[in-house]
Amino acid sequence: MPANPDYRLDEALYVLRHAQVSGVVCSPATFETAAAVAAELGESVWLRANEAGQHAVPTLEESMGAGTPAQVPPGTGNATDTALIIYTSGTTGFPKGAMHSHRGYVLTAEAFVGRLHLQPSERVMCVMPLFHINALMYSVGGAFACGGCLVLLRKFSASSFWRFAAESGATEVNLVAAAGSILARRPREEFVPGHRITKMFIAPQTQEMVRVMKNEFHVPRLIECYGMTEIPGVIANPFNGPHKLGTMGLISRHPDTTIAAPEARIVDDEGVDVAQGEEGELLIRTPTLMQGYFRDATQTEAAFKAGWFATGDLVRQDADGYYVFVARKKDVMRRKGENVSGAELDRIFGEHPAVEEAAAIGVPAELGEEEIMLAVQLRKGQTVNPATLVAWAKDRLAAHKLPRFVVLVDAIPHTPTHKPAKHKLKADTTLLARAVDLAGGAATR
């Protein structure tokens, strides 16, 4: 059960207690928190460090090499046993532990090999956290499954990304959208032309990101995709195209055609399939589906609709069958009788040259429903007038989608998986008071 090393004591204690761990392996940097958790959980929970440091416990390596090896008992497990529990980010309430079997992990890793055409000569560079399925199942699993090499970094560093890529000979890397956008905007003197990366697995993509990666950084293939902790690796743009920017792609199946392909439906609020082109909630059935949420039968039952996993994502299918993400159902604002996607606004305003990141949330309207507030983190050294920023988007967004309130923030908060933590923005009662209200000509206050 991988855990976020940035957990504070209360967060770590909740997750590790809920997971009923019997041992904790930590880094020297997280030793204080891990030791406090282990002490709270009791003497039956052992603690080891992953490397030497200023701590009072042996390393895992030292423990494994000490004494006379005990006789190894015969194996009793099978492919359907739970191998892994990954806790979700917990954007609404307590984190939930998604359970995956040995078979599910292997199928996910093998499917990633097919999705990215990974070869035995591959050097897969992993810059994302190992408590996330992207790193743990795609990068680590994919490197093992193709028989290639895993190039593992402690964390993502934009300033040294290209230098390390060139020095390590990396050929493939997975990124979240935020990391891709940061790289596209970094000083060009950080770029190292001698790198060997030919493939990136990244979503969602923007026109700027694709242009820079292909034309300036010379990465020929950028594969846009879709997956969740509960349903890893189900939809992606085909490796050999056509690549449709801004889409999740098509159903992505295992290279072994005897393995059942993932299935998808798009349904309305009553569970009825919608017509092609219409928006609805995405339901999924796949061989890599989680086994359920650990010790949470209620949430497990709530996650399924008649045997289909309900993603909570609103999507549509275009004329070519490509799936297009619209919004999280809980990231949809209702304004003047119309639904507005928060994710769409995040993407559009995030493309403004002065904006580092933007996040749209709903706030109560005087006459019911919601108004839209946009939290904006500016790029270093940049300034922007809220009215000018919103006017810039008028040609790209319908009038009812334009934010009424704009507030400048030092930093957009993130979940552990690098998504905007909108629940934290909504909980900050000072934002609305600090925001510029663009209604009634009050844009310059």
From TrEMBL:
One of its GO terms (molecular function) is medium-chain fatty acid-CoA ligase activity. Keywords: Ligase. Residues 344-419 form the AMP-binding enzyme C-terminal domain. GO terms for biological process: fatty acid metabolic process. Residues 2-294 form the AMP-dependent synthetase/ligase domain. InterPro entries: AMP-bd_C, AMP-bd_C_sf, AMP-binding_CS, AMP-dep_synth/lig_dom, ANL_N_sf. It holds the Pfam family AMP-binding. The keyword Isomerase does not apply. Belongs to the ATP-dependent AMP-binding enzyme family. This is Long-chain-fatty-acid--CoA ligase LcfB.
